[in-house]
């Protein structure tokens, strides 16, 4: 039964065009960003932002190229997840969905499971695009790629994991906000403006900087280790497992809210 | 779009119907109020009826009568304010693999426009518990085989209805609940649907179809459950309903003995009769007011009321659903040109099961 629900949710995702359009855009965007970042490294000055006192080891810098998807591309798995519920409500397919599986908790869990799996795919493709493009450019301009180092591959693996968590977070958010336009606006506004600005503003004080580390974007970057923001010294990050826990807490809290609000309502 | 072959819905993959349920759909004192306070909508109020297997039951009522709300409560999509709605004695969410037991299509046919017809069915197949090949079987059954790979976004209303029906048939369920399935079908499609529903009922399935016009389902249904303003106004077999539509005369005389003798002498069919002291009242069937009046005049029987009602089935339906649901007696004439009262024999019988005549 639960397996069937997972298969059904997975099929719902892959039988529409949205997911692979987003996946293709993500891959292209991540490749471009990683290539650009890799090339800018060869220009010597990587300390954009806060100045010359910054001390970065080269492998830190290279890691931020490979995990650029966690810093700039998490909006893609987030969106795919966030649209899982709103698409059902928009097209009223929530009715046949609940007819096939009357347990609303099980529907929510199946959606989390299936979107988590698709999130892994997004994570793998987005990260791979960054590694191939970034590593290619680094190699072409004669820089060290650090692809022989275990630490690099660990970051790459954690980048995939972080992006999958974003898909879970999106699914949980979607269970709370079922209006498609609203959820898209919230996702874009939060990821593109609210959190980046909040992180800059909060990092001006030391306590604020600690708070900022708990924002979902910062927690996601913490999971993969190196990141653009931390590489430029703008914020401090949690450790990778703390970041993972913080993201999971967001997922659990939002899912619980969705379960007792949206998913308790009458479907008419 | 080609027409489907003669309906033979049983798939090779699923067993015979009625294996998980006795197929009886039962609604008991069901009430649903949307919202609260002054803005509350009393969509369904103390509704009770029963739907039997082996028959097609028409679930009828004007727009906003509460048909869809009732079906959604049966399916666990809307939580009742009070009362129960069960299928085979169980609430929908208590049924194991419910799509295998109940096939339901609700009014707003719900599809993702970007999905193909086959993919739409393949999405639900795992939970229904049937192999993917069943999708092609039901598509053929509803006449959509040729458009299986087309996106649903480009489907006509009639094609969507057929796909909705295909979805309900995926699990070869013994119980079918269909909300306005004829909506958007062309005459040929309606005839086809009629044949399909009749065939499904003949196989022993429970088939409930809602509609807001009686004439649409008149040729299809065995039983009717008629609701208005969320309340039951009539539940019976179709012949019993049709009997109400026969021409009838309401007659009242202060001289009971004389009227009794008159009725007996002419051999009129008595629909209902009543007595109040010396006075007698009769509901006479298959006779006109003119005939009764002439006979009474000839027999010197004093009449205090002589009213003929000549109603067709559709008129009857309008009468039943237009009048505020109340326990009117045959003797109480409706004031003015308003709808005639429901004869006492058909007044709301809240827990009368449909299909008394078997
Ligand atoms: N979610 C809701 N919130 C408030 N009122 C509702 C809701 N859903 C239905 N209603 C009201 O409940 C009443 C019954 O509606 P319902 O859809 O069950 O009628 P229906 O018999 O299916 O009508 P139709 O023939 O038009 O489909 C209507 O007054 C409707 O406005
Ligand atoms: Mg309706």
UniProtKB/TrEMBL annotation, chain A:
Keywords: Membrane, Transmembrane, Transmembrane helix. It comes from the Bacteria. The chain crosses the membrane at residues 20-41, 61-87, 108-141, 153-174, 181-202, 238-257. This is ABC transporter permease. It comes from Cellulomonas persica.
UniProtKB/TrEMBL annotation, chain B:
Residues 25-254 form the ABC transporter domain. One of its GO terms (molecular function) is ATP binding. CDD domains: ABC_BcrA_bacitracin_resist. InterPro entries: AAA+_ATPase, ABC_transporter-like_ATP-bd, ABC_transporter-like_CS, P-loop_NTPase. Residues 1-20, 324-358 are annotated as: Disordered. Keywords: ATP-binding, Nucleotide-binding, Transport. Residues 1-10 have a biased composition (Pro residues). Gene3D superfamilies: P-loop containing nucleotide triphosphate hydrolases. Coiled coil: none annotated. Belongs to the ABC transporter superfamily. PANTHER family: ABC TRANSPORTER, ATP-BINDING PROTEIN. This is ABC transporter ATP-binding protein. It comes from Cellulomonas persica.
């Amino acid at each position: 039964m639960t397996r069937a629900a997972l298969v059904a949710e997975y099929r719902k995702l892959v039988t529409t065009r949205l997911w692979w359009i987003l996946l293709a855009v993500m891959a292209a965007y991540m490749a471009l960003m990683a290539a650009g970042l890799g090339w800018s490294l060869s220009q010597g000055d990587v300390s954009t932002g806060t100045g010359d006192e910054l001390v970065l080891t080269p492998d830190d810098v290279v890691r931020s190229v490979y995990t650029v998807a966690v810093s700039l591309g998490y909006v893609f798995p987030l969106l795919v997840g966030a649209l899982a519920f709103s698409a059902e409500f928009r097209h009223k397919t929530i009715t046949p969905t609940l007819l096939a599986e009357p347990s609303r908790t099980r529907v929510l869990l199946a959606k989390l499971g299936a979107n988590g799996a698709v999130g892994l795919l997004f994570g793998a493709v987005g990260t791979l695009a960054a590694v191939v493009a970034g590593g290619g450019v680094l190699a072409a301009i004669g820089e060290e790629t650090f692809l022989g180092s275990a630490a690099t591959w660990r970051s790459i693996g954690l980048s995939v994991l972080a992006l999958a968590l974003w898909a879970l977070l999106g699914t949980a958010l979607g269970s709370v906000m079922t209006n498609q336009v609203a959820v898209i606006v919230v996702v874009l506004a939060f990821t593109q403006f609210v959190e980046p600005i909040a992180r800059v503003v909060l990092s001006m004080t030391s306590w604020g900087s600690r708070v900022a580390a708990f924002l979902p974007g910062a927690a996601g970057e913490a999971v993969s280790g190196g990141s653009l923001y931390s590489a430029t010294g703008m914020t401090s990050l949690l450790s990778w497992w703390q970041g993972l826990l913080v993201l999971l807490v967001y997922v659990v809290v939002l899912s619980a809210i969705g379960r007792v609000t949206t998913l308790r309502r009458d479907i008419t | 779009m080609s027409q489907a072959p003669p309906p033979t819905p049983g798939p090779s993959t699923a067993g015979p119907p009625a294996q998980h349920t006795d197929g009886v759909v039962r609604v008991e004192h069901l009430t649903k109020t949307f919202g609260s306070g002054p803005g509350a909508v009393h969509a369904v109020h103390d509704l009770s009826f029963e739907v039997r297997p082996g028959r097609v039951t028409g679930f009828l009522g004007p727009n906003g009568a509460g048909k869809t709300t009732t079906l959604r409560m049966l399916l666990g999509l809307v939580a009742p304010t009070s009362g129960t709605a069960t299928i085979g004695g169980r609430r929908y969410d208590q049924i194991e693999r419910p799509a295998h037991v109940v096939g339901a299509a609700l009014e707003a046919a719900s599809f993702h426009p970007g999905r193909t017809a086959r993919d739409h069915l393949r999405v639900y197949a795992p939970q229904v518990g049937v192999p993917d090949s069943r999708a092609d079987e039901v598509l053929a059954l509803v006449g959509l085989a040729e458009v299986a790979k087309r996106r649903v976004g480009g489907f006509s209303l009639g094609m969507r209805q057929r796909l909705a029906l295909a979805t309900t048939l995926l699990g070869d369920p013994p119980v079918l609940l269909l909300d306005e399935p004829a909506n958007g079908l062309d005459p040929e499609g309606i005839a086809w649907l009629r044949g399909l529903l009749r065939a499904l009922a003949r196989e022993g399935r429970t088939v409930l179809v809602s509609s807001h016009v009686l004439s649409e389902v008149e040729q299809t249904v065995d039983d009717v459950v008629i609701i208005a303003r969320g309340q039951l106004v009539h539940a019976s077999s179709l012949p019993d309903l049709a009997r109400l539509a026969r021409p009838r005369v309401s007659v009242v005389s202060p001289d009971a003995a004389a009227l009794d003798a008159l009725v007996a002498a002419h051999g009129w069919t008595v629909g209902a009769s009543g007595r109040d002291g010396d006075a007698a009242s009769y509901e006479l069937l298959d006779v006109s007011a003119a005939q009764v009046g002439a006979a009474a005049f000839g027999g010197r029987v004093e009449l205090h009321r002589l009213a003929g009602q000549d109603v067709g089935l559709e008129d009857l339906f309008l009468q039943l659903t237009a009048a505020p649901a109340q326990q009117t007696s045959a003797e109480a004439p409706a004031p003015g040109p308003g709808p005639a009262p429901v004869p006492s024999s058909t007044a709301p019988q809240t827990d009368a099961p449909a299909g008394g005549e078997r």
